[in-house]
Amino acid sequence: MLVSILDALALISALAAAYLWWRASGNLVRRISLTEELNAQDFNRMAIAMNRSQKLNRRAALATAVSALAIAMKFAHDLIIGG
Fold first, then answer.
1. How is the chain classified by DSSP, letter by letter?
2. What is the pTM of this model?
3. Could you tell me which residues come within 8 angstroms of residue 78 by beta carbon, excluding any fewer than 6 positions away?
4. Interval 23-73: pLDDT, tens
5. CA 74 to CA 6: how far, in whole Å?
6. Domain boundaries, the chain
7. Which residues of 30-39 are buried (b: 16+ CB within 10 A; e: fewer)?
């Protein structure tokens, strides 16, 4: 029972991490040309895009940590119980 729960937790958190990193990789910052003048709105857009990407990366890292912890707990359970 515990092994099945840990397997499900590892699977769900790994899928969540993959989805969050896929979303974070899709946030591209618009490129500008050399002749274009930057204004406050351009800097604001770049800051927002980087902040969103950082938040998604942080969530993906947390989901990866949960997945790794679930797998480590499963291995520990198997070593202790011998299943």
1. -HHHHHHHHHHHHHHHHHHHHHHHHT-PPPP--TTPPP-HHHHHHHHHHHHHHHHHHHHHHHHHHHHHHHHHHHHHHHHHH--
2. 0.69
3. 3
4. 877 766 667 778 888 889 888 888 888 888 888 888 889 989 999 998 989
5. 6
6. 1-26+63-83
7. eeeeeeeeee
